[in-house]
Amino acid sequence: MEYKPLPVGVDNFEKLITGGYYFIDKTLFIKELLDKKGDVNLFTRPRRFGKTLNLSMLQYFFENRYDKRGKKQETEFLFDGMKIMSEGEKYLVHMGKYPVISLSLKSGKQADFETAYIMLCRQIAGEYERHRYILDGDMPQKRKEKFQKIMDEEAEYALFADSLKFLSECLYDYFETKVIVLIDEYDVPLENAYMRGFYQQMVDFIRSLFESALKTNDCLEFAVMTGCLRLAKESIFTGLNNPEINSVLSTNYGEAFGFLEEEAMKLCEDYGLSDKYVELKEWYDGYIFGEADVYNPWSTIRYIKDHLAKKSAFPEPYWANTSGNAVVRSLIDRADRGVKDELETLIAGGTVEKPVHEDITYDEIYKSMDNLWNFMFFTGYFRKAGERFEDVQRYVTLEIPNQEVLYIFKNKVMGWFQEEIRNRNRQKLFDAVVSGDTVVMKQEIRGMLYETISIMHFYESFYHGFLAGILYGMESYTVKSNRESGNGRTDLYLRPAFFDQPVYLFEFKRALKVQEMEKKAEEALAQIREKKYDAELKEMGYAEVIKYGICFFGKDCVVKREGRV
User: Fold this and answer.
1) What is the largest CA-CA distance in the chain?
2) CA gyration radius, the chain
């Protein structure tokens, strides 16, 4: 059966519609925007949740469009059959009525301020180029010269800082209609600037750009901005007239970004994958925006596309792979024992409660653990499981939303903790393995267990990976895991570089009660003997095999040894 192409990475509304891509109709976002009548509207949602496509849709709906030759372009056909077309003349009268300034700031993600500034100016110049047809109108010569300077990227800093307001004035004079301003990914250059060390320079430029265009601009009809995080008014929104902030906690616009349950279900049906719906839900559902239950649209579409190619494909952490997850690493780097306990609770499916505040700046994010928790919540790593209000403070109960985000924590967060452990001096543990000092081995292993995080159920696979990691790097030894040997598989062994050195073989058990630990450790040694795990090693020529049976219970352990040392 032939299906419509899936719009993986397609965020231009015209291309999506004219290209015949599958489209989930979000045009009632236009109706809600007109009904609410906000002057400056900021929408914050996690990355890859359709913000750019929605802005593109707004542009094609509202803009009185002209091509490079100054020829009027009709775009009404793009909305044929869509929900907004049934809402009546009250809304359709706005179609194609306004001049629109559309600007993305994502190109401001550069290594230094000079390059970032040049790239942002280039984006602004490109928007001037898009509207160059107005130079053919009745524009005073001085204005034309100023317009040309900005378009040619030859203007000084002050002109670029005021460029959005100036362009809106020029467009207003040409059309005699107020201007709509659309700004996508407004916070990208700010986050990058903080990480790169030129935050204040970028704040100053972005603040000047926004203040002139959005604060005292009589030519402005309204503005829509998108980003991942709301920033404090004092950082870049100083003096703006009551900007409407719409975050994941806002009750309005909850259905405008991401896929609703019925939309995700229909998507599966339309591509003959209804039997995959439960798995898709477990992996990519779980976000709460306002009162709406929302699926990650990027991952949902990628999942459908992969399963069209191969129905037996496994679910993948698509969203997790679109970012370096630097803020999660920052949480790990600053984690004390309390934070580690909270992360373990979340990984095990539990919840934690945190005070929530939306108005922070990037230079404040890393100054407190609460700010980091807030950042991770608003950027999609947690969802709201509940909330309360006490003593003028809002508290949100956080949980991991789905299997995809759980993957980040299980594979990246736990891996980072174990990386920290491996970077410490483990010579005392190595010496204890060689000398057969089970008391010191126990002390070192459980000390490192205490410093890492783990799944609260403490599956044997966790302990296996943990011990393999901390034994890695022992001089002249190689860690080998789950190799066929004797009548089964040994959990782990240390193979020496030379045959006259002993092999150290490990078998693990997990106790359900602390009282079982001694017995289970002895059972691990017995299993090595009974299943002859050392047989292959002896056949290879190793004269001596030292056996260790280890039983774990939570973050404690018992170590037993057998063999000459």
Assistant:
1) 98
2) 30
- Class of residue 424 by CB neighbours under 10 A (exposed 0-12, middle 13-18, buried 19+): exposed
Task: Give domain status of residue 418, yes or no.
Answer: no
Q: What digits encode the pLDDT tens for the residues 8-46?
A: 999 999 999 999 999 999 999 999 999 999 999 999 999
Instruction: Report which secondary-structure segment, H or E, holds 436.
Output: none
Angle, alpha carbons 40-44-48 (nearest 5°)? 130
Q: Are residues 509 and 535 in the same domain?
A: yes
Residue 56 within a domain: yes
> Do 209 and 290 share a domain, yes or no?
no
SS3 sequence, 19-82?
Answer: CCCCCCCCCHHHHHHHHHCCCEEEEECCCCCCHHHHHHHHHHHHECEECCCCCEECCHHHHCCC
Q: Calculate the dihedral angle through the C-alpha atoms of 104, 107, 112, 114, rounding to the nearest 10 degrees.
A: -70
Task: Return the closest-CA partner of residue 56 out of 36, 81, 75.
Answer: 75
Query: Each residue of 452-503: pLDDT tens digit?
Result: 776 655 677 788 888 888 999 999 999 988 654 445 667 899 999 999 999 9
Residue 145 sits in the same domain as residue 191: yes
Residues whose CB falls within 8 Å of the CB of residue 103, separated by 6 or more in sequence, listed in order:
123, 124, 127, 164, 181, 182, 183, 184
Distance CA 373, CA 49 (A): 20
Residues 6+ apart with CB under 8 A from 134: 147, 170, 171, 174
Query: Does the CA dihedral 530-534-539-542 come out positive or negative?
Result: negative
Provide the number of structural domains found in the chain: 4
Are 221 and 164 in the same domain?
A: yes
The residue range of the domain holding 287 is 259-316
Tokens standing for residue 352:
């934690």
Same domain, 309 and 284: yes
Q: Coil, strand, or helix at residue 504?
A: strand
- Quote the CA–CA distance of 15 and 13 in Å, as a whole number: 6
Q: List the Cα angle 120/126/131 in 5-degree steps.
A: 135
* 364 and 444 part of one domain: no
Q: Domain containing 143 — which CATH number?
A: 3.40.50
Closest among 203, 218, 190, 179 to 99, alpha carbons compared: 179
Q: Which of 296, 317, 563, 549 is nearest to 442 (CA)?
A: 549
